[in-house]
Amino acid sequence: MATPEDQDPNYVTAPVRTIADLAKIAGVSAGTVSRALAGNSLVNAKTREKIERIAREHDFRPNQMASKLRRQKTGVIGVVIPLGHDRQQQISDTFFMTLLGHLADELTARGYDLMLRRVIPQQDKDWLDRFIRSGMIDGVLVIGQSNQFERIEEIADGYLPMVVWGNHKEGQRHCVVGADNRLGGKLAAERLIAAGARRLAFLGDTGPFEFAARFAGAQDVATRMGASIEAVPTHLTPDRTGKEIAAFLAENHDEIDGIFAASDTIAFSCLRELQKLGMAVPEQMKLVGFDDLPIAAQTLPPLTTIRQDIAAGAHGLVDLLLRRLNGEETESLIMPPRLVIRETA
Fold this sequence. Notes:
The protein has helices at residues 4-7, 19-26, 30-37, 45-57, 64-70, 94-109, 127-133, 149-156, 181-194, 209-224, 238-252, 264-276, 310-325, and strands at residues 76-82, 113-119, 139-143, 162-165, 176-179, 199-203, 228-232, 258-261, 286-291, 304-307, 333-335, 338-340. By secondary structure, the chain is an alpha/beta fold. Helix 12 (264-276) links the parallel strand 8 and strand 9.
């Protein structure tokens, strides 16, 4: 009688303890093994039968993840960050790390694990479809709409368990959690003008929906109050941000007296570059950021900013997603921003 060793040259006698071990013997990826054990139709019958046979031969007992897959539940929530507007941006950005930390806390408390992906949509046009169809996640949280609003809208038409951090647009179909960015922009401009600034600059890329709404709000106030405001495209990549701000300030610091930074991260770079120029803040230049990241209160001088409650936002993202996993259609959650006055304006 032929033994397993005779039938399969890849057969090994070492114990098979993990899906990775089983995948190595079968000559497929760990993801294929997971899907095969779950009975996923994406794995062809011949491959699935081969994997199941090898699992039986090695007395492989799937771990908790594989057991959940067989029940079509993974216990994993996918978190994806699309960087279509600035492909060099890093997820080590302070805003991303703050939000991801709160999300991890919320998901862990609800018994879920988190799977993180950073994607460049220009390089992977099916970035969202493939993640959803992978069989590895129960639902997905999208952090930022970037320049992918229409793609997210298309997915929302046929996929319920998805919630997006971003800006709400009247009539949109996908469920979103985020601050009222236009109102936040208004609060920022009103503070700068109240502090004595009349010639304002908005530093940030107005392509992404959130930043565009912030600029639009500030523009509304500037127009109404007889002030001027100029949009200055600024990347979010650390090595480019400082250079772009330095170049702008070197040529224009005498032409403006107030800066509305689209994010606290940009505001921090502004502070450094203003200090290099020897410009006093707020005496010579007023500055307002957006986010109220933990470090905003620790800069010198402490940053005046628009607060969006990131912890409450993370709670809202997870709560809405789990409700949608249970089949509930949910409304978007729009959080009110709040002006936090410190010393830069």
